[in-house]
Design a protein that fits this description.
Elements (H helix, E strand, L loop, with lengths): L11 H19 L6 H15 L3 E5 L4 E5 L10 H10 L3 E3 L14 E9 L2 E10 L4 H40 L3 H14 L4 H18 L6 E3 H19 L3 E7 L7 E3 L4 H12 L6 E10 L2 E8 L6 H10 L10 H14 L6 E4 L5 E8 L4 H4 L4 H4 L2
Parallel strand pairs: 7-9
Antiparallel strand pairs: 1-2, 1-5, 3-4, 4-5, 6-8, 9-10, 10-12, 11-12
Helix pairs in contact: 1-2, 4-10, 5-6, 5-7, 6-7, 7-8, 8-10, 9-10
């Protein structure tokens, strides 16, 4: 398909609209992290082009964080303008004593419009031009409002990230003390009868806790999550012996898929703990990871004691706020984080009944949404 040429755009008005939208699309990612020096330094050049002025500054509550005067090189002392905007919360216009002294300096006017997050003025957009006009003031106000909307989105993203991290910290805090005690007791029981197995179990326990308490990002791969789940199951099988059987069915295609950190093991722990609770015979836990079109589908199923659907529903509604050891704590936490990251359609699906076992299904997109791609750290991508 041939590239769109300027003469294909139609009228001059259409061309201007295209250029404006293109510039706006370039600026938006630069403000994704808020009013940072790195983002503002890149954004001011595009903002100056968008407004068609001599110079543009972005200022936070304390100082200018980004400034561009292009070839004019105009030097601006923005502190007085910033202070007045922060004090009044209104647009400030100045048309005196703005020349920087350079012979070719054409700046005779400055417009400073407030940048707002919620109801709080957090900075100012300042534009310098050869003359003041009602059109210039209106243009700077409109661009400041659009910039404010980007800053509010950035603030919402940061709040979202903090909420997800808080859920993750809560889950780490809920690592069952009983599991740790029982795992160490099982390891100790082999120290005399089978020292080599005790050593292997101790290494598995160390790797499990190191992974669960790591300081990495909020995401891992399916492969990493399954490997950590295997460590957990090795320790539980050492404790329960033949009472616990485990089956895995994994499609290799989904192993690199990114998922929220610690989403599989808590579901398996829930299946082991509550599946064996009240069950007299052997319990089998089946873990599957399937490739279904655009999604990866992860399933944890046991044929143990099961539970009342009302109990599971109540656990999910508590979203992990119950105390450690309560039924469904892991379920509620995982469900809340999946919905927070991917949206409500990607919450847990739980099928259970007393005496009929429990099946928990996770569905995640195989391709990370662009809005979340930046959250993947180098540690997240490592398999």
């Amino acid at each position: 398909m041939a590239l769109l040429r300027r003469r294909d755009l139609g009228s001059r008005e259409t061309e201007i609209a295209f250029d404006t939208l293109h510039t706006v699309s370039l600026i938006a990612p630069m403000l994704r992290d808020g009013l940072t020096e790195a983002g503002a330094h890149r954004a001011v050049r595009q903002l100056r082009s968008l407004l068609g002025v001599t110079a543009v500054a972005l200022a936070g509550e304390d100082a200018v964080v980004g400034y561009d005067a292009g070839p004019h090189g105009h030097r601006l002392d923005a502190q007085e303008l910033l202070a007045e905007v922060l004090r009044s919360g209104k647009t400030v216009v100045r048309s005196r004593h703005l020349s920087c002294g350079s012979p070719d300096c054409d700046v005779r006017a400055a417009v400073a419009s407030p940048l707002v997050e919620g109801n709080t003025v957090v900075g100012a957009l300042i534009a310098c031009a050869p003359a003041s006009s009602a059109l210039l003031v209106r243009a700077v106000d409109e661009v400041a409002r659009w910039t404010s909307s980007q800053l509010e989105l950035a603030a919402a993203n940061r709040q979202h990230a903090r909420a997800v991290e808080a859920e993750l910290r809560a889950l780490r805090a809920q690592i069952s003390p009983h599991f740790i005690y029982n795992a160490l007791t099982a390891i100790a029981s082999f120290t005399r009868t089978d020292p080599e197995r005790a050593r292997e179990l101790l290494l598995e326990f160390a790797d499990f806790t190191r992974y669960a308490l790591r300081n990495g990002g909020q995401f891992a791969t399916v492969a990493e999550e399954l490997r950590n789940t295997e460590r957990y199951l090795v320790l539980e099988q050492a404790r329960f012996g033949e009472r616990l059987a485990v089956l895995l069915r994994v499609a290799p295609e989904v192993l690199p898929v990114a998922v929220p950190f610690l989403v599989i093991q808590p579901l398996v722990e829930n299946a082991v703990r509550h599946g064996l609770e009240g069950a007299s015979g052997r319990v089998t836990v089946l873990i599957t990871a399937a490739d279904e079109g655009n999604d990866a589908v992860l399933t944890v199923e046991d044929d143990g004691a099961g539970a009342s659907p009302e109990v599971i529903t109540a656990s999910l509604e508590r979203a992990g706020r119950a105390g450690p050891g309560a039924r469904g704590v892991g379920l509620g936490n995982v469900d809340a984080r999946l919905r927070s990251v991917f949206g409500d359609p990607y919450g847990l699906v739980v099928e259970t009944a007393p005496g009929a076992g429990t099946k928990v299904v996770i569905r995640v997109p195989k391709t990370m949404p662009s809005s979340l791609a930046g959250a993947l750290s180098a540690g997240d991508r490592k398999m």
